[in-house]
Amino acid sequence: MAAAITTETGAWVGTVPFLAYTGVFLLLPTGIVVWNAFKGNTGHWTFANISALNTGLVRSAFTGSLELCVISSLIGAVLGALLAYAVASGNPDGVVRRLYLAGSGVLAQFGGVTLAFAFLAAIGPTSGFYFHAPWFYDFPWGIAVIYCYFQIPLMTLVFLPAIDGLRAQWREAAESLGGSTWQYWRHVGAPLLAPAFIGATLLLFANALSAFATIEAWEDQISYVVPQSISTSLISEVGLANVHEGDALAFGMIVLVVIVMSGYFLLQRRAARWQR
Amino acid sequence: MAAVNQPLGDLAADLTGPAATRRPSGLRASQRRRLNTFRYVAFTVFGLFFLLPLLAMVRFSLEGTTPGSWSVAAWTQIVSYPGPPPLLSSIEITLELAVITSAVMLLLVLPTMIWVQLRVQWFSRILEFICLLPLTIPAIVLVVGLAPIYNQIERYNVSALMLFWAYVILALPYAYRALAAGLAAVDARTLSEAARSLGARWPVVIFRVIVPNMVQAILNALLLTVALVLGEFTVAYLLSYVNLQTNLFEISRSSENAGVLFSASAATLAFAFILLMILSYAGRRLRRGRP
Amino acid sequence: MTKLVAAAKQEGTLNVIALPNDWANYGTIIKTFTTKYGIKVNSIAPSDSSAQEVTQIEQKKGTSLAADVLDVGGSVATASTSLFAPYKVATWDSIPAGLKDPSGLYTGDYGGYMSVGYNSTKFGTITSLSQLLGKAFKSAVALNGNPTEANAALNGVMMANLAEGGTAGNIADGVNFFHKLKTAGNYVPVQATPATIKAGTTPVVFNWDYLNTAAVVGQPASTWKVFIPSNATLGGFYYQAINKQAPHPAAARLWEEYLFSQTADGGQNLWLQGGARPSEQVAMTSNGTIDKTAASALPPVVGTPIFLTEAQATAAATYLAANWAKAVS
Predict the structure, then answer these.
(1) Is A176 on the interface with C (CB under 8 A)?
(2) How far is CA B221 from CA B6, B45, B181, B207, C13, in A?
(3) Of A193, B29, C30, C68, which is the most exposed, with the fewest CB atoms less than 10 Å away?
């Protein structure tokens, strides 16, 4: 086998296993979703599913998603940036930094069912840690606080390299020119960090948009956000206008996430310039 | 949770990257004091926010049948909870899934990446695009398209272990970034030319020359994959499979004794945290070990 | 029947779905069935809703993991008949005509009345649903599930609908009631379980009366009371159906025979002991096979019972699908 593949023209054969696998399990499902989004009940091509996305029920799911995502990503971004700054300005090899990074890694990943249980334990009349517990079931602010539980660590992880990239010399230079802390941040720090900050916020937004497990485990009686609508459409047949509504919803989500993630990638490339 | 692990690749690199030296911060003493105050306040406030639910969870897991009493019943129940389905079997399934997914991931992605780097360079852009695509196709969307495919899979094998096909895709972006960072740090071209000139065949070049230099990156990728599999809920739930997270979800919806929910969740979190900390210090030792 | 038992024993396994152990005594029913026939019962996803049961048999179609039998609410039963295999149990004639599909695609098995269970120490006595809109009930009222998916929750909203003066054909008043609850801050979208009741998160629960008894809920009878509005006595039955592509068809049919048998340890009497009203209750009372103690322990029915027709249930489901989320968010 090795002999045959060493010719230049034949070398691409080595990518076949990878292409085959991702073709079947990534590209094909995506294709199915996009294809079905444009198919009607009778099997013909139609924009009906897409235009049905503009009906009240679906529109409120998208509005709900947008509300929750904007709130949790903004709060998560600001607080996460502050925490990142606190971590970055300490000993780079120290225990505190390692603990916080490992903790952030775990918390950013472990949203979902586990997080819902943790909050169940923390609120409620018999636990006594939090007050006004039912507020956490409010949409969007109560649930946004729960989302921040994984948004803030995520922000810390994403934004940390950007802060690490702020060189001490720039601060010294600003000082020697007579600038105050405020002026340093306003004229040097903020503009440098802006692309990374906005990019990271976009990442948080896409993350909140895709989150399903957390809100489903927290409360599944009301479909607030698009992932829950997709789940309902996969489960319940009653009341749906057409069988491919789930695919249309999924397609709508893809479009949204693609837009947001493109913004993230573009900004990340720009921000990377300052991080070397 | 899709986009989450991309920075985890950075995290892993950060934790195991070159040992940073204490940098001068360019601040005067008074500014440094103010900064330290800010840091202590920030760590306390955030620490409380994050620790309280976790502590509450642990406390609930240790509570006995009457309020005020303590018992480890919830923890022993992790292995004995009868379900249905029994919790232990779903833990086993999830751990097996983690192993299978990691193995398939590495076997699929690592040789391909190295091969592309060395022999099919023009493909690397396509490779990167495909590997990062799952970030824009979140699990909740992917599962809609996977449902008909899994209908076919189930005609051959009904086990929940079949979830690995989807899990490899979900883990792809994170593992790719971790491995790509590692591969970039290795001068693959030079190494492979040297090995080839000594008469090594391609499999030897890939597996015995380049891969051993990427152990750190491989560890990172493995950790990210395992973390993902342990916490995965959406795909399993919507395809009607039983794994650890869906089992916990099921218990939370119907069961009277909820103690095992908190103990199992706390155990999973602790497990992942310990893994990350081990990786952080192991990375440091690996670096120091090399001349 | 003996042939059926032999065939079922040869299959050796039965897959059931959405049957919590404390739901109308299903725990005992499953155990008794296994002891009696030696057939192992796999209890899949106990907390699934009726709609999720149908999804499961569609997703696992053709595999050995698909559920063999379903126990679903009326609207899901009538909407999914294409997935069922017709079967008439031996006691078919004892079941009222209104509770079964003429060709045997689904058969009413047990039912109850929609009720409000509540903590009487905290709230005193509840005599009308409109009390629930008051300040004392802040963050207290919970449903059993998602009305767009679960039969129990749908009927909970329908009971409110009838109590508010609405008709069975139009559930708008019920949705509006919950909207008012939500605006007043009294509705809490938490799944009510014995754990949440114990923790005090859901001290008022809309649920079937057999699920709201103090014993099932795990509260002392002195503090947990059940209220059925006299102007909204909404009854509801569940229906058994056999999966057309059941992996264990003989076991599935034997299970149904067992559930509908009128013996002392048969399904009908065991459901009765769980506080539910078996579909053959009338026939069994007249032929004397009914468990008299359990029957007299049932709460008396005040007011005229109303049962949703197929059309009404479907109309309610459609309305909920379009309006529920908006009303309570």
Answers:
(1) no
(2) 11, 32, 10, 17, 42
(3) B29
- C270, HSE (Cβ side, Cα atoms, 13 Å): 20
Mention every residue, 6+ apart, whose C-beta is less than 8 A from residue A249: A53, A58, A61, A226, A229, A230, A233
pLDDT band at B5 (very low <50, low <70, confident <90, very high): very low
**What gap in Å lies between CA C140 and CA A252, rounded to an integer?**
36
pLDDT at A179: 78
Taking only the tens place, the pLDDT of each residue in C261-316 is: 999 888 999 999 988 999 999 899 898 888 888 888 887 778 888 888 888 888 88
A119-123, A144-148, C26-30, C39-43: range with lowest mean pLDDT: A119-123
* Co-location of C246 and C214 in the same domain: no
Give B33-92 as a DSSP string.
HHHHHHHHHHHHHHHHHHHHHHHHHHHHHTB-SSTT-B--HHHHHHHH---SSPHHHHHH
Q: Which two tokens stand for residue B171?
A: 């883990």
* Distance in Å, alpha carbon of C179 to nearest chain B alpha carbon: 24
Looking at chain A from residue 108 to 147, which residues have their Cβ under 8 Å from any Cβ of chain C? 124-126, 133-134, 137, 139
- Give the tens place of pLDDT for each residue, C99-140: 899 999 999 999 999 999 999 988 988 888 999 999 989 888
φ and ψ at residue C61, rounded to 5 degrees: -55, 135
CATH number of B2-18+80-289: 1.10.3720.10
Q: Is A4 on the interface with B (CB under 8 A)?
A: no
Beta bridge partners of residue C111, listed in sequence order: C237, C277
When divided into structural domains, chain C yields a total of 2
C146 Cα to chain B: minimum distance (Å): 12
Q: CA A215 to CA A115: how far, in whole Å?
A: 10
Per-residue model confidence (pLDDT) at position B92: 92
**What is the model's pLDDT at position C178?**
94
Q: Does A33 touch chain B (CB under 8 A)?
A: yes
Evaluate whether B250 touches C47 at the Cβ level (below 8 Å): yes
Residue linked to tokens 């149990």: C89
Domains of chain B by residue range: 2-18+80-289
CB proximity C153 to A under 8 Å = yes
